[in-house]
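retry 2 of 3: previous attempt timed out while embedding S-adenosylmethionine. Reduced batch size to 1 and resubmitted. Inputs unchanged:
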Amino acid sequence: MGSVKSSVKGWKAAAARLAVVIAIVVQTLGLRALWAQELAEPRLDEEIAKQQKIFQRRGADVPGGYVTGRGLSDYAELLPTGFCDALGRLGSSDRWLDIGAGAGQAILDYSAPEGDAPSGEKCARSASKARAVALSIEDRRTDNWRERAASLGHDRIRYLSGKSLRHYSLEELGKFQIITDVFGGFTYTADLSRFVDKVLTLLEVGGSFYTLVPGVHLEGGDKLGTWYLTELENAAGRPEKVCSWLKKCTCAKVTCESKSDWKRPTELIKVEKVCSDVSVPRMKLLEFVAGYPPDRRFQLER
Ligand SMILES: C[S@@+](CC[C@H](N)C(=O)[O-])C[C@H]1O[C@@H](n2cnc3c(N)ncnc32)[C@H](O)[C@@H]1O
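retry 2 succeeded.
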């Protein structure tokens, strides 16, 4: 009887010691995580500030890889199948938003008068043209843009600059049938889920977002030896593909075309808004290194 009692006592003491050790480990890990977070946040802020400086570079200072003048034919090659047809179907009361428009060349090509289309134009022309809005953080309007905007009049083409997409309200921008993003906010933002949420808010039900994202894990499988630019992970820290994450959004029909043979593995993405009750699973920024484009790592929040 005595030996049973003493072994229960011994077991209780061991359990108490283990609880103390666990408490110390948990506290240490917790403090470490907090410390790592405190160290990481100023570094993220510094990199995001560096990124803003890249956007503002001018003339010979603009890095070669920071391309701002892609035309509509480039958009036709880079965006998912169906973009040109969808653009061609828009009527004069419809609206197209190009996020991260750079100099707005794609919209300039689209709005060119009949017979004045750039040679080799890959998007078929339609007689009626939608109103188009070009959005860029920095103002890269050309004289060509100003002249075309003035000759078309009535705000048929508009250029908005001075802030990123997240700082515009729905009331300021209104809704759109087509939203595009070619190496714009989707590739550069430090807040991917908020960006997608804003895009879906700005789309009319039945409207579509056409974009691409370079240097990602592809839905159709990865190539060995790839340098990834945008990496996503789930809440447990395991890799998450950009398309599998987007497919978790409500009211969004997502189609992906994996381009594994491009210089960087690239996902061409079409997101159709199918109902109005949109929600986007939150992604937290873990890493951001400024560049053109930047390196980013995000983690799905629980
Ligand atoms: C590399 S340029 C691409 C320009 C154009 N799409 C092209 O292909 O020539 C990047 C553009 O994205 C814009 N941009 C980046 N992040 C953005 C954001 N969060 N909101 C709006 N524009 C953004 C920049 O201001 C710039 O106009």
